[in-house]
Amino acid sequence: MSSLALLPSQKPPETREGAARVPPESLIYDWNQVEAPPRPPQPFGLIDETLRDGIQSPSATNPSLEDKLELIELMQAIGVDAVNLGMPCASPRALADVVAMSRHIQARRLTLTPAVAARTVLSDVEKVIDAVQQGGMPLTLYVFIGASSLRQWAEGWSLDFLASASAHTIGFAVREGLEVAFVTEDTSRSSPEILDRLFRTALGQGARRLVLCDTVGHATPAGARALVRWTRQLIASTGCPGQVEWHGHNDRGLGLDNALAALSAGADRLQACGLGVGERVGNTAMDVLLLNLKLLGWYTHDLSRLADYTRKVSEALRIPIPFNHPLSGEDAFRTGTGVHAAALIKALGRGGGRLADHLYSSVPAQEFGREQRIEVGFMSGLSNVRFWLQSRGLPSDEALCQEVLCWAKERDSLPREEEILQVVETHRRRRQSAG
Ligand SMILES: CC(=O)SCCNC(=O)CCNC(=O)[C@H](O)C(C)(C)COP(=O)(O)OP(=O)(O)OC[C@H]1O[C@@H](n2cnc3c(N)ncnc32)[C@H](O)[C@@H]1OP(=O)(O)O
């Protein structure tokens, strides 16, 4: 504790007239621009898979219908253009929820395109047709089959079986008036020979979207780019209209990088789930993807409700937001660190929130509905304490600041607000009785 006496006391921040008017961009050299990723070659879309793949996370709770409806509203608010409502064949409740969500989308005149998933199995597709009839609105069918040799081996399937099951089911769905997206599970580990056969079959039967699935999170950005480019060339060679969609998992922690690489290579749409929930370690996180798309300048929709969306995903699926999750994590914009806090406080004094927002974060908190917070803890300096006290309208004389800081340094974790207030109160009483 005696070492604290050696800490230099914080000088009052210098003020520099006019600093507030300096745009942050002019103070930040951006190496990212030196080798900037290629912009997507065409407009792109986003489909939210939280209510399909997201709830396949073993840790997720199946959200109530009310929560699902609220989530759909928030998806619309953040500018997502399509939503997968689930698998009607999974259970009577799943079917009923899909129907209720379709009715909601219609009644509220939302612009989200609703979609559902099914196996290449006629009885699954019949359930989708039920959902369309009961819900009274079209649903895009995402019809899937395990494609890779590994997946075929596990099931005892042949490529002929995959092609005929796909042709049969897609043909049936298209004749029934459904728009069809063809989903090849494990695409990123499937050979070009397999994909060539299946994609030509699907497009020939009227599928209008090919979904490239990195089902086990095997892809790297280079692999994602190669697969997207190869698929675009294949579609062009068929003369059929067809779009490319990317579905990525995060097993190697590369979900976001792969999604961005797929987009740069020409994917028309990306799939993602709020908070990155989904099978095993989950899917590309929709919230982090949107954050990056926005910062890259590739997405212009207002994202001030993005943190609300992420909170709702957490609440609806009963999955806590990790403390260090980008943007919405508890710690995303707070610091208890002395050097960082001292600089942040000076920046606040000089230029207000906008510049301060860029000082110790690459994400401007205010733009996304959040704000910077300064805490007091064992890695703090006097600046933290003084700011903490002043921002609560409390006295912040040197003796009190030193006492709070010495006390905080002795602790193993950041103190709670009430605990700091207790130290302040004890100090006040001691002074009162002394004086
Ligand atoms: C794209 C993805 O993420 S794939 C994950 C899809 N999501 C889910 O599975 C969640 C919801 N699933 C469910 O509710 C159930 O698994 C159901 C209703 C689909 C099927 O339940 P069950 O009939 O009891 O089958 P079960 O789940 O045990 O096994 C899956 C069956 O589907 C078969 N199957 C899987 N995909 C296909 C396909 N595209 N075409 C034909 N059969 C398929 C499997 O071979 C297996 O058949 P089997 O029972 O003869 O071995």
In short:
With 435 residues, the chain is of the alpha/beta class.
% residues in beta strands: 5-15%
How many strand elements? 10
Q: List the uncertain runs.
A: 1-19
**SS content category:** alpha/beta
Radius of gyration: 27 Å
Shape: elongated
CATH architecture designation of the largest domain: Alpha-Beta Barrel
CATH class of the largest domain: Alpha Beta
Estimate nothing, just give the exact number of structural domains: 2
Helix content: 40-55%
| N/C terminus separation | 26 Å
Which fold name is given in CATH as the topology of the largest domain? TIM Barrel
Spatially, the strands of the biggest sheet line up as 1-2-3-4-5-6-7-8
Mean pLDDT: 93
Number of helices: 15
Largest sheet: 8 strands, parallel, barrel
Query: Could you give me the name of the CATH homologous superfamily of the largest domain?
Result: Aldolase class I
Query: What is the helix/strand order?
Result: EHEHEHEHHEHEHEHEHHEHHEHHH
Bound compounds, each kind once, are: acetyl coenzyme *A
Characteristics:
TIM Barrel; 15 helices; PYR_CT; 2-isopropylmalate synthase; binds acetyl coenzyme *A; two-stranded parallel sheet; 2-IPM_HCS-like; 2 domains; alpha/beta
Structure explained in plain terms:
This protein has 435 residues and is of the alpha/beta class. It folds into 2 domains: 38-317, TIM Barrel (Alpha-Beta Barrel); 375-435. The protein is built from 15 helices and 10 strands. An 8-stranded parallel beta barrel has the order 1-2-3-4-5-6-7-8, surrounded by 6 helices. The chain has a two-stranded parallel sheet with strand order 9-10. Helix 1 (65-77) packs across helix 2. The two termini are 26 Å apart. Residues 1-19 have low confidence and may be disordered. The chain binds acetyl coenzyme *A (ACO). Acetyl coenzyme *A is lined by residues 53, 56, 87, 89-90, 119-121, 144-145, 155, 165, 183, 185.
